[in-house]
Amino acid sequence: MSNSFQNIPGTFDILPSAQSSAADTVASTPAWQHVERTIRQVMQRHGVHEIRTPILEPTALIARGIGQLTDIVSKEMFAFERGDTHYVLRPEVTAPVMRAYLQHHLAQLGGVQRLYYIGPCFRAERPQKGRYRQFHQFGTEYIGADDARADAETILLAVDIYRELGLTDFTVRLNSLGTAATRPAYKAALQDYFRPLADQLSETSRERLESNPLRILDTKNEAERKLLEGAPVMLDHIDADSAAHYSEVKKHLAAAGLAFEEDPFLVRGLDYYTRTAFEIDSPVLGAQSTLAGGGRYDLLASEIGSKQEVPAVGFAAGMERLFLALQAAEIELPGAARPDVFVVTLGDRAASYAFPLLRAWRQAGLSAVYDLKGRSMKAQMREANRQAARRVVILGDAELDAGTAQLKHMDTGEQQSIALNDLPRVLTENAFSPKT
Ligand code: HAM
């Protein structure tokens, strides 16, 4: 038996720098940190606060919240039991956030709770590019909000994050799904339309025709997409209030100057949606082209046990797909931060002398690093270069005897001899000057 382990397919490691041996790492840690920082900044500008909920949730919350018949619940849950408790690794964060909102009575705070999250989710899907078993979502939930401005604002929030990161090539698609009360009539209309065409449908769609005909609208199958051309559209079946709400959403988006497409066949893979539904697609992502999806879910709270209806709207977006889109657009993301100083030591005496020095510099706020392997000067210089250190301090016996060190400015190649006593001042002064 081999004793070398690999990560599970559909998961990936996030490494401090890009490695050719790890083509599936998606992006390096500094790139993730940069994107996460940007998300946090844009959220903050919108008055949206971070919420962190557990990775483990009760299976029943997810099953009831998302819907038993959805692919996520029926096929893709990582679920298990211990004793009498049924656990699931969360496949999404909307139901957990609503659970937390209800559990902690956040409604009592008054107003609308604007919440956001960034974190891992789990779905047992067939892994491929842009589709993983452990992936990461960032998203927002506006809970307690009926107003169509909330729908528009969540869409614009996603758009603003993409734009802030430099991504401009994407499409926003929009639809209204009406309410639970209007859904049965539309389902029936779809069934009436598709039943005579059943022999032209795929096996999956034939199954969906009886159980969940809305999902046929989601088909990627070309022949089925042709059949959709004559199908009844949802917007003709929604109630007057939903239609008015939808017009308001569109009005606010137009006022914000956002171009969007209305897609009468846009449905979502989760059952909790009412009224607004939207997706943001990237043309460069191939089969997994959806960067983000969301909408209004006014019935989720009641579905998971609330006595009152709690209107809410939100979106979630895949981090990995965002990285793929950024890479395709050749948007450069930052690499590892450059150390302020790398200390090269020659011999034990210098190494011992440098150790407390490095600690003092770090306490003064410098990023100060050195080689822990006691390698040759050449190897240490190579390492300093690899890490793109701004300065190198070279310390050997001769320098210590003379009470000096060599200071090399790596960007200019300039080198000077400097008194050991003077080093802290020179380094800190330089380090806090504007960085090149
Ligand atoms: P969703 O459409 O299931 O919606 O997922 C949102 C986004 O997560 C997708 O558009 C995609 O970018 C990413 N994603 C989903 N599954 C995978 C996967 N297996 N691998 C990589 N990325 C994936 C939701 O999860 C809803 N909770 C969105 C929402 C929030 N609705 C209202 N509020």
What do you see in this structure?
This protein has 15 helices and 16 strands. The chain is α+β, with helices and mostly antiparallel strands. The strands form three sheets. It has an eight-stranded mixed beta sheet, with helices on both faces. Strands 13-12-14-15-16 form a five-stranded mixed beta sheet, sandwiched between helices. A three-stranded antiparallel beta sheet has the order 2-4-3. Strand 9 and strand 10 (290-296) form a beta hairpin. It starts with 28 loop residues before the first helix and ends in a 5-residue tail after the last helix. The model is unreliable at 432-436 (pLDDT under 50). Histidyl-adenosine monophosphate binds next to strand 6, strand 10, strand 11 and helix 11.
Notable characteristics:
436 residues; five-stranded mixed beta sheet; 20% strand; disordered C terminus; 15 helices; binds histidyl-adenosine monophosphate; eight-stranded mixed beta sheet
